[in-house]
Amino acid sequence: MRKMVGQIGWAVRGACRASDPELFFPLAQAVEQEARAKAVCSGCPVLGECRAYALRAAEPEGIWGGLTVQERRGLRFPAGWRRPEAG
Q1: pTM of the prediction?
Q2: Can you count the helices (H) and strands (E) in the chain?
Q3: Residue that wins the pLDDT comparison between 2 and 83
Q4: CB pairs under 8 A, 24+ apart, for 65-69?
Q5: 28 with 53: CB under 8 angstroms?
Q6: What is the pLDDT of residues 9-53, one digit of tens each?
Q7: Coil, helix or strand for 19?
Q8: What are the residues whose beta carbons fall under 8 Å from the beta carbon of 59, sequence distance 6 or more?
Q9: Cα 58 → chain centroid
Q10: Which tops the pLDDT comparison, 48 or 83?
Q11: Which long-range contacts (CB under 8 A, 24 or more apart) does 65-72 make?
Q12: What's the angle, vertex CA 76, arms to CA 65 and CA 61, rounded to 5?
């Protein structure tokens, strides 16, 4: 069963705890909003824990640990991660 963020001990120490959650979960991709969210993350004392959680849980939405969904996907599946099919 997946834990709710409020149940994760490190989350209560996050720099984002006092921020509007919509900042980290935009309805549409917005470069300016992404930059503001990442600025909050940049000074966060639990950045590493947040990022590790998001990668482990394969969080499908939002900015976690200073990374967007696409950036996290790039870490999980780097270019060339699939072997070419035998032909």
Answers
A1: 0.78
A2: 3, 0
A3: 83
A4: 65/41, 66/38, 66/41, 66/42, 68/34
A5: no
A6: 888 999 999 999 999 998 888 899 999 999 999 999 999 999 999
A7: coil
A8: 53, 69, 72
A9: 9
A10: 48
A11: 65/41, 66/38, 66/41, 66/42, 68/34
A12: 50
